[in-house]
């Protein structure tokens, strides 16, 4: 803030000059005292000046809240914008009307494809959106050393972006095994973050005891991977902020609520992590987290604090997260404290959404340098054949509604060449085709519980390296689906008995599209219906979201990468064949 702005702010607060805007007759949510109070709120030059007085000069503009609740704009403490399938401008258009005014985004999806070019695209594409987007520099590009990503970000590259004021820290440290082992490369990244006085985001599913001590001793200050109240309390005990996640695939809010108590709630935040466009349109964003928590017994003001001031404190953003003098005028208005439905949103004092309509005019940045990322070499249907040395095989067994998988064991059918062929079991082939470096690598395995028959489903959105992942019961259909993705520069495709039934291009790094969010949501719903109704994918399984997480080798138990079947607990590749 410059001296002139500060002088003017004080003058407005003291009643010497008129405010730009007065929000009259508000019931203000006080996140400091966890209480409510009635007031008018004066705003000038994008900042809250104060609460006025009887003899103050009239503001240039007045908005009568008519007794509605006024709260700080909501903050998503951890999100991958890429998982919405939308460009930053389209993402802003969908979430701001729901009251989200700030997000802490980790662009490790696009950075795994495009490196720092992808990071810079996200900075540029979100620079002038109504949504305030802060970034974390990804810590795990690639996610593990057991796969091929589009880039490698070491400490030296990370240091090049940590000085940017819109960069809050080091992105989620998913390689918890490497952290606990004091891996030299990881230590370098942690030291760089410390040198810039930046926060380190965590990712530590299932860690307890000495392993958790070692992990948090490294400087990690958040975790969004808790699955039980005990895990939540264990992390808070170590000074770690816990993010209660409600994404499209991962639903943790209700499970974790018993761990949120009066003594620790200031260390609890909300996040979405991965949330698709349809979920944003139908259910909302962080407002959905709040409603869900309140409907399951959490005090409404505590829930709002978790979505505002707690997040601001965690991420060292003292200019937002409260309705108080000197803070940014990022504000939301709603009628029911027990069922938060936002009807007006201000960002820096400017009305940007009203009754679900987005009023801002955000520029859409062309994806120069981050499109056409499809470098597939030495691919053919024959390369999808899965030879097995025995009839007993490991499967990646899907757990509906979870990104965690189990290790299954099945007796399989083999052809005369010893290669897997489909039988009556609910088991299909799954493959990851490397698309970044032209290595020709293809990892093969078996997927149990997907339900697919007579076709293939493929996507270039495959966490976190985002190679092409395809599931099918025959090589020909799988190959058609893969080639369709290559031809259109990434996206999603469904093939049935040799015929392409549907596709959705993702021209931005094979991860996102600049198409309208409603169109993307409709197309995703349409493709999902085709996958279930024609190919028989189980209705309890999201055809694409489930598939894309099968390539994430940091979530137990078995996953698949372009180098083969991966045992997350053992942290190594394993053969598809299983021992008796």
Per-chain topology:
Layout: H1 3-14, E1 21-30, E2 35-44, E3 47-50, E4 61-64, E5 69-72, E6 74-79, H2 88-95, E7 100-105, H3 108-114, H4 116-125, E8 132-137, H5 155-162, E9 167-173, H6 176-180, H7 184-195, E10 199-202, H8 209-217, E11 222-223, H9 229-236, E12 241-245, H10 253-256, E13 268-271, H11 277-282, H12 286-295, H13 300-306, H14 309-314, E14 331-334, E15 342-347, E16 350-354, E17 357-358, E18 392-398, E19 405-411, E20 413-414, E21 420-421, E22 427-433, E23 442-448, E24 455-459, E25 468-472, H15 475-488, E26 491-496, E27 499-505, H16 517-533, H17 543-549, E28 558-561, E29 564-567, E30 572-573
Parallel strand pairs: 1-4, 1-5, 6-7, 7-8, 8-9, 9-10, 11-12, 12-13, 18-23
Antiparallel strand pairs: 1-2, 2-3, 5-14, 14-15, 15-16, 16-17, 18-19, 20-21, 22-23, 22-25, 24-25, 24-26, 26-27, 28-29, 29-30
Helix pairs in contact: 3-4, 5-7
What do these coordinates show?
- It is a single chain.
- By secondary structure, this protein is of the alpha/beta class.
- The chain has 17 helices and 30 strands.
- Strands 1, 2, 3, 4, 5, 14, 15, 16 and 17 form a nine-stranded mixed β-sheet that branches.
- Strand 12 (about 240-245), helix 10 and strand 13 (about 270) form a beta-alpha-beta unit.
- Helix 3 (about 110-115) crosses helix 4 (about 115-125) and helix 5 (about 155-160) runs parallel beside helix 7 (about 185-195).
- The chain is elongated.
- The N and C termini lie far apart (about 70 Å).
- The model has no long low-confidence stretch (mean pLDDT about 95).
């Amino acid at each position: 803030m410059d001296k002139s702005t500060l002088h003017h702010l004080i003058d407005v607060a003291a009643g010497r000059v008129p405010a730009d805007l007065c929000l009259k007759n508000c019931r203000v949510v006080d996140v400091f005292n966890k209480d409510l109070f009635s007031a008018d709120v004066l705003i000038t030059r994008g900042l809250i000046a104060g609460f006025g007085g009887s003899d103050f000069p009239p503001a240039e503009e007045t908005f009568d809240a008519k007794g509605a609740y006024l709260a700080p704009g909501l903050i998503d403490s951890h999100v991958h914008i890429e998982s919405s399938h939308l460009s930053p401008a389209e993402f802003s258009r969908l979430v701001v009307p729901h009251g989200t005014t700030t997000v802490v985004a980790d662009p490790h999806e696009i950075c795994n494809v495009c490196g720092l070019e992808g990071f810079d695209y996200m900075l540029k594409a979100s620079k002038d959106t109504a949504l305030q987007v802060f970034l974390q520099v990804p810590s795990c590009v690639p996610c593990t050393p057991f796969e091929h990503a589009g880039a490698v970000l070491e400490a030296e590259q990370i240091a090049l972006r940590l000085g940017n004021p819109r960069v809050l820290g080091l992105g989620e440290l998913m390689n918890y095994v490497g952290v606990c082992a004091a891996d030299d490369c990881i230590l370098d990244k942690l030291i760089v973050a410390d040198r810039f006085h930046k926060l380190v985001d965590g990712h530590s599913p299932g860690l307890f005891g000495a392993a958790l001590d070692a992990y948090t001793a490294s400087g990690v200050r958040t975790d969004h991977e808790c699955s039980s109240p005990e895990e939540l309390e264990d992390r808070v005990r170590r000074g770690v902020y816990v993010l209660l996640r409600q994404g499209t695939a991962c639903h943790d809010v209700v499970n974790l609520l018993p761990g949120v108590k009066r003594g620790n709630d200031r260390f609890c935040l909300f996040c979405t992590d991965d949330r698709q466009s349809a979920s944003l349109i139908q259910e909302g964003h962080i407002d959905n987290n709040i409603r869900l928590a309140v409907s399951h017994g959490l005090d409404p003001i505590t829930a709002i604090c978790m979505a505002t001031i707690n997040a601001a404190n965690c991420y060292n953003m003292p200019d937002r997260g409260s309705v108080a003098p000197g803070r940014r005028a990022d504000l939301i208005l709603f009628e029911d404290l027990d069922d938060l439905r936002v009807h007006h949103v201000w960002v820096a004092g400017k009305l940007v959404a009203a009754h679900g309509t987005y009023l801002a005019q955000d520029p859409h940045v062309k994806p120069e340098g981050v499109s056409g990322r499809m470098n597939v070499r030495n691919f053919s249907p024959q390369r999808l054949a899965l030879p097995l040395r025995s009839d007993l095989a490991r499967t990646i067994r899907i757990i509906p509604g979870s990104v965690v998988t189990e290790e299954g064991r099945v007796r399989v059918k083999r052809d005369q060449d010893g290669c897997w062929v489909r039988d009556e079991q609910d088991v299909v082939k799954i493959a990851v085709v490397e698309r970044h470096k032209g290595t020709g690598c293809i990892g093969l395995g078996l997927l149990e519980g997907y339900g697919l028959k007579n076709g293939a489903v493929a996507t270039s959105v495959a966490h976190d390296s985002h190679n092409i992942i395809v599931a099918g019961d025959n090589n020909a259909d799988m190959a058609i689906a893969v080639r369709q993705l290559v031809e259109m520069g990434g996206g999603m495709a469904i093939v049935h008995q040799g015929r392409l039934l549907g596709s959705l291009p993702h021209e931005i790094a094979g991860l996102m599209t600049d198409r309208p969010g409603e169109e993307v949501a409709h197309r995703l719903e349409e493709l999902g219906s085709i996958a279930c109704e024609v190919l028989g994918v189980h209705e309890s399984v999201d055809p694409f979201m489930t598939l894309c997480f099968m390539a994430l080798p940091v979530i137990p138990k078995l996953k698949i990468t372009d180098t083969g079947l991966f045992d997350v607990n053992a942290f190594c590749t394993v053969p598809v064949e299983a021992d008796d």
